[in-house]
Specification:
The chain is an all-alpha fold and 73 residues long. Helices cover 67% and strands 0% of the residues.
């Protein structure tokens, strides 16, 4: 995952680098270095984690809508 893609995906799921670092319990400096010049690339697992986070967020929102409308317990 390229740095620009990483930033874009973070934003789309409601994270910035600092909040994402806190969420995954990794030092901010580590996350901030990913993809920068002469620094480690964004790890492959980050894309998977963000994808799963996004899917989970959608399902939680859908569950809440269904609950509010009284369609389930």
């Amino acid at each position: 995952m390229e740095l620009d893609d990483f930033k874009s995906v973070l934003k789309s799921v409601g994270f910035n680098k600092k909040s994402f670092a806190e969420y995954i319990n990794v030092p901010y400096a580590t996350v901030n270095n990913w993809g920068s010049l002469n620094r480690p690339p964004v790890p492959d697992w980050v894309e998977v984690l963000l994808s799963l986070y996004y899917e989970n967020k959608k399902y939680k929102e859908l569950k809440e809508i269904i609950k509010v409308k009284g369609l389930c317990d």
